Structure to design on (201 residues):
């Protein structure tokens, strides 16, 4: 095992064919249970979504189905997508039960069917579903762009005898680092360009 190498910082990435919005559900980005900086994450996600739609890129909204009693239990207000989808051939909602958005879902087939080899990933939570989905995409041979200002998570609570509270921004940054140098880390979501996928899904 070698020391990790940092994600590759890219200020002007090549265009991507798809946008994957991870778990932007009301439970996590609105109200008392929202992640810190939820307004900023939503603002960047709206911008990415508008530009992806305008470019004719593939858009996939991942929606987590939490267990009974969870904030994202299906059918509850917290489960709903905060940024409404516009379902159609180039925009789909994919429900999932695992952190990895590819696990047991049609996400891989949607990307492959459209020939979408390059994607941008945004949403919550940085170290869980965002990282797991980005890592799975990389393992499948996709090019992955991660806008630094378009994902986030919660503070990690203090653990007596281990550490004090870890601020959400530090946890999100650590999640980026842990993805290694295959992911393209972009400082600002506004710099991510979109193009249509090679094939219509």
């Amino acid at each position: 095992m070698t020391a990790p190498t940092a994600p590759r910082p890219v200020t002007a990435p090549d265009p991507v064919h798809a946008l994957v919005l991870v778990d932007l559900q009301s439970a996590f980005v609105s109200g008392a249970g929202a992640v810190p900086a939820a307004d900023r994450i939503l603002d960047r996600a709206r911008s990415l979504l508008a530009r992806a739609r305008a470019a004719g890129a593939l858009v996939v909204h991942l929606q987590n189905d939490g267990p009974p009693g969870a904030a994202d239990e299906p059918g509850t207000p917290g489960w709903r997508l905060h940024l409404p989808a516009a379902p159609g051939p180039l925009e789909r909602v994919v429900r999932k039960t695992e952190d990895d958005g590819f696990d047991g879902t049609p996400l891989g087939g949607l990307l492959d069917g459209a020939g979408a080899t390059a994607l941008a990933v945004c949403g919550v939570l940085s170290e869980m579903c965002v990282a797991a989905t980005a890592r799975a995409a990389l393992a499948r041979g996709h090019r992955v762009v991660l806008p630094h200002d378009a994902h986030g998570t919660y503070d990690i609570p203090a653990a007596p005898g281990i550490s004090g509270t870890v601020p959400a921004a530090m946890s999100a940054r650590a999640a980026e680092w842990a993805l290694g140098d295959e992911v393209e880390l972009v400082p600002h979501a506004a710099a991510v360009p979109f193009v249509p996928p090679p094939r219509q899904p």
Q: What stands out?
A: The radius of gyration is 16 Å. Residues 38-55 form the longest helix (18 residues). Residues 88 and 146 are 25 Å apart (CA to CA). The beta strands are 8-9, 18-22, 58-64, 91-96, 118-124, 143-147, 151-152, 184-186.
